[in-house]
Write a structure and sequence with these properties.
Blueprint (H helix, E strand, L loop, with lengths): L10 H10 L8 E2 L5 E7 L6 H9 L7 E7 L3 H10 L4 E5 H9 L4 E9 L4 E5 L15 E4 L5 H12 L8 E4 L2 H9 L5 E5 L2 H7 L3 E5 L1 H6 L4 E8 H27 L1 H11 L4 H6 L9 E2 H13 L19 E2 L2
Length: 325
């Protein structure tokens, strides 16, 4: 599954999860061999493959870091564990990070995980009367969760294309059920990332909007990233800087070696190696595009997900590689 597993609704659980975390941190520790152990909270989805491949290749070891991966089941759980100190670093999509800022959680984005890669899209059935984005008026659209990054980017893309997104009816549908729901006519369109994206194309479903986020931000825009807590930076700035160097090296290598990425993906997900090899390659960015955060923050206010413009001025770590989209 792709980044769209992250949902806006999960943000409602972040505060309670933080309060319920153990007070004794289990994150960074110095090893007898001179390496520093760094615990990283991940979800078992495609955008984490670049980082995982870098760990396999020893790029983090080269920086003196011993990476311990903690598999989580939700972005809210990762956010809570980073803030509490249980994890040193976490992975999340842009939208929940913005929500965390609105809630006053002390986090910093330190590096990109994945960027707009043209391997996600809004699909309709082969015989659908919807022939172009203009025909989406009043459509029932399946997304993995309401008020998620999917909903924000679909509406943003539609409005950018001159379609009134306020007429859309969003329906929550789990990824594995999306194509059956589309084929049964329970929804008019569905937003699909890899590996469902390739499956939809192979079944003849038509792509009405390719990579909605890319429509208004362009290729290369950050859509998921790694973050840490302010307190971790204050205590372990050298470790954070080493992590950033290894992450950028990992992402550059992964983007250039999609076949190795496919093998890595099949090792930590239920995606078969054959399917992984057929997927449209993901771009693992090396630069955090500040425009992604600014644009999505504005859209979240416009669509009523946030009540006021979030203060994003301090969200991105000053030593992280930054740039426009």
């Amino acid at each position: 599954m792709q980044r769209r597993i992250f949902v806006a609704a999960a943000a409602l659980a972040i505060t309670s999860l933080v309060a319920g975390c153990a007070t004794e941190a289990t994150g960074t520790a110095d090893g007898a061999d001179g390496t520093t152990t760094v615990t990283v909270g991940l979800l078992p989805i495609v955008p984490t493959a670049g980082f995982r491949l870098g760990v396999e290749k020893g790029f983090f070891k080269d920086e003196g870091l011993d990476i311990k991966i903690a598999e989580a089941q939700s972005g809210a759980a990762v956010m809570a564990s980073v803030v509490s100190g249980e994890y040193d670093v976490g992975f999340a999509a842009v939208v929940p990070q913005i929500q965390a800022v609105e809630q006053g959680l002390p986090i910093k984005v330190i590096g990109t995980a994945s960027s707009v890669s043209n391997n996600a899209g809004l699909f309709v059935a082969p015989d659908s009367p919807i022939k172009s984005p203009a025909d989406l008026k009043g459509a029932r659209i399946g997304v993995v969760a309401l008020k998620s990054i999917d909903e924000v980017t679909i509406r943003g893309a539609a409005d950018h294309l001159g379609v009134d997104s306020s007429t859309f009816q969003f329906v929550s549908v789990p990824f594995p059920e999306m194509l059956p729901a589309l084929e049964a006519g329970r929804v008019d369109a569905v937003e699909l990332p890899e590996p469902f994206y390739t499956a939809a194309l192979s079944k003849g479903h038509r792509e009405i909007i390719q990579e909605p986020m890319g429509v208004f931000l362009g290729d290369g825009a950050t859509n998921s990233s790694f973050f840490t807590s302010d307190s971790h930076i204050a205590k372990k700035k050298n470790v954070v800087d080493s992590f950033i160097r290894a992450l950028e090296r990992s992402n550059e290598y992964a983007t250039k070696n999609p076949q190795e990425v496919a093998k890595t993906v099949s090792a930590y997900t239920s995606i078969s190696s054959d399917t992984a090899e057929k997927m449209v390659p993901t771009v693992f960015g090396t630069t955090v595009t500040t425009e992604s955060y600014e644009a999505l923050g504005e859209l979240m206010v416009r669509y009523g997900i946030l009540s006021a413009d979030p203060n994003l001025s301090n969200l991105i770590y000053e030593d992280a590689s930054q740039g426009g989209s």
